[in-house]
Specification:
Blueprint lengths: L1 E4 L4 H13 L4 E4 L10 H6 L7 E3 L4 E3 L1 H11 L10 H34 L6 H22 L12 H10 L2 H4 L7 H11 L2 H9 L1
Parallel strand pairs: 1-2
Antiparallel strand pairs: 1-3, 3-4
The structure holds glutathione (GSH).
Length: about 200
């Protein structure tokens, strides 16, 4: 499997973390934003939206970080990471999508506004910062409450829901957004940081 990835992209971090947890073999294809042709006909065959991460496999091509995790889990029967039982799967899907829709996008936006824009000489859009902070204040307590009485999103097992949030939380320092106010998320984060698969991801960035 070939994995198109960039070391700054949280969506690529997500897929790399998943791959390291899964133990599946893969070849990294490093993509540089300045030089890679995201709109080339060849790449659009791999990723119709022209975005990374995307994978080429012996069975076909798949794009979108969360879709890649779900696809690979089913293809290689990684049932601990993405359960087959429909109710358990719905729970994992709920938390994965909750984080995608209500947490991840705002952390990425904050990192963009507070780190990447100034680095490129573009001023921070304070309206965007305030709306991201407001959204995070609204949605994080739900996650904190859920993690208050379990080790991971789905009790004892690390699933794609945990992998998903971890990748977004890696934006924390660029976003200048920390999690002290949400003690259960902070505790979960400490556990996740120690995972050997995550440590391996850090060596790739
Ligand atoms: N929802 C997508 C987001 C992927 C995404 O935004 N990728 C960015 C890099 S962080 C990208 O490929 N940008 C290039 C472009 O859009 O031209 C996912 O989860 O994979």
């Amino acid at each position: 499997m070939r994995v198109y990835s960039n070391s700054h992209s949280p969506y690529c971090h997500k897929l790399l973390f998943f791959l390291e947890e899964s133990g599946l073999p893969y070849e990294l294809i490093p993509v540089e934003f300045e030089s890679f042709d995201f709109r080339s006909p060849e790449f659009l065959k791999v990723s119709p939206g022209g975005q990374i991460p995307a994978i080429e496999t012996e069975f076909g091509n798949v794009a979108e970080s969360t879709v890649c995790m779900r696809y690979l889990s089913d293809r290689y029967q990684l049932d601990d990471l993405f359960p087959r039982n429909l109710e358990a799967r719905a729970e994992v899907d709920f938390w994965t999508e909750y984080v995608n829709q209500h947490i991840g996008r705002y952390l990425v936006s904050l990192a963009w506004q507070r780190h990447w824009q100034p680095k490129r000489g573009i001023p921070t859009d304070q309206h965007s910062v305030v709306s991201s902070l407001t959204a995070l204040d609204k949605y994080l307590p739900v996650v904190d409450r859920h993690l208050s009485n379990r080790n991971f999103f789905r009790s004892a097992f690390v699933t794609i829901a945990d992998i998903n949030l971890m990748a977004f939380m890696h934006q924390s320092s660029d976003a200048r957004f920390y999690f002290h106010e949400w003690p259960w998320i902070a505790l979960w984060h400490e556990k996740m940081k120690k995972r050997p698969a995550w440590q391996r991801v850090l060596t790739l960035l």
